Amino acid sequence: MEHKIEHKVITKHGKRKRAVARAKLGPGEGVVHINNIDIDNYEPKIYRLRLREPLLLAGDIARQVDIKVNVHGGGINSQAAAARLAIAKALAEYSPRLKKVFLEYDRQLLVADVRRKESAKPNRHGQARAKRQKSYR
Q: Taking Cα atoms as reference points, which of 14, 17, 21 lies closest to residue 74?
């Protein structure tokens, strides 16, 4: 009796500041798209390299799956961090042994950075902590 291998699609999300990324991982041949742009064409280069980190750590496993990421909100840096987190989470669920590898390399691959912009206070020139300058003359 032959066993059919289950190929379910894994959906994970990642957040960083205002950016939210949703990653879909399914069987394939290693194609990765971020907002319908192939990862090889993603610019600037520094963010492309950061997005590749979980794929390089995954090695052969990354070549067995296709990943499609939709990311919106925030700036380009936050979007790249959110997408990187979503990709790593999806890969870790696909292959649980990767979880330890990711955590040893960089905890930010699996754990979201919860810091947000501090809200501005009244009578503070629009900044969170800036105060009116005092003059003692």
A: 17
Range of the domain at 77: 10-109
In a 3-state reduction of DSSP, which class is residue 37? strand
Smallest CA-to-CA distance from 24 within 80, 32, 16 is with 32
Asked, for residue 125, whether it belongs to a domain, the answer is no
Number of domains making up the chain = 1
pLDDT per residue over 40-91, tens digit each?
999 999 999 999 999 999 989 899 999 999 999 999 999 999 999 999 999 9
Name the pTM for this structure: 0.86
Is the pLDDT score of 137 beyond 80? no
- Which of 17-51 are b and which e, b meaning 16 or more Cβ less than 10 Å from the residue's Cβ? bebbbbbbbeeeeeebbbeeeebeebeeeebbebb
